[in-house]
């Protein structure tokens, strides 16, 4: 087989495998019931991870961020999103301006105030690799390492893609651009009047 033909077959096989396990070729999934993510603190996730290693999903927010609130309502209350996060990750809700110290990987991270008494927590800077944006979601692997920050508001369809990409380890084998093009989320695009 030529290299080009082999590449075509690999991509075709990947396309077939990216169908959501629950979709089985059916129409788009409609969701309207509220669901709850079992949020925990960063410390709780670290403790649970020691006993049972699992990926960590971090929702980085601030109290004043309107897009953070919108993502909570539109995306995180989507039953399919909440269920997938609860089953596949330790979900952490982390205020980027929390005043409490956090110990992580033998380092202590603290809140750093600026001249106006506002400021940022060092763990937020670390997890976003210095690219602060609210909201942001961060994916950590089973070793609580390799932070993958994704900045900005994510609707349910795009969040579903991100969750599958990281949760099912596609990020280890395939480029995000290709995955984003070929994976079809079973979720419907949210209405703009939500």
Annotation keywords:
alpha+beta; 37% helix; four-stranded mixed β-sheet; two-stranded antiparallel ribbon; 194 residues; Glutaredoxin; disordered N terminus
Strand content: 15-25%
Tell me the major beta sheet.
4 strands, mixed
User: Nearest-angstrom radius of gyration?
Assistant: 18 Å
Distance between the termini: 51 Å
Under the CATH scheme, the architecture is 3-Layer(aba) Sandwich
Strand order of the largest sheet: 2-1-7-8
Overall form? globular
**CATH domain class:** Alpha Beta
H and E string:
HHEHHEEEEEHEEHH
Helix fraction?
A: 25-40%
Unreliable parts: 1-32
**Average predicted local confidence, pLDDT:** 84
Overall number of domains: 1
- Please work out how many helical segments DSSP would assign: 7
Structural category: alpha+beta
Number of strands: 8
The CATH topology label is: Glutaredoxin
CATH superfamily: Glutaredoxin
Please characterize this protein's 3D structure:
- The protein is of the alpha+beta class and 194 residues long.
- The protein has a single domain (33-182), classed as Glutaredoxin, CATH 3.40.30.10.
- It contains seven helices and eight strands; from the N terminus they run ααβααβββββαββαα.
- It has helices spanning 3-17, 42-51, 66-76, 79-88, 122-127, 156-167, 176-182, and strands spanning 55-61, 89-95, 102-104, 107-109, 111-113, 119-121, 136-140, 148-151.
- The strands form three sheets. It has a four-stranded mixed beta sheet. Strands 3-4 form a two-stranded antiparallel sheet. Strands 5-6 form a two-stranded antiparallel ribbon.
- A hairpin with a 5-residue loop joins strand 5 and strand 6.
- Helix 4 (79-88) packs parallel to helix 6 (156-167).
- The N and C termini lie far apart (51 Å).
- Residues 1-32 have low confidence and may be disordered.
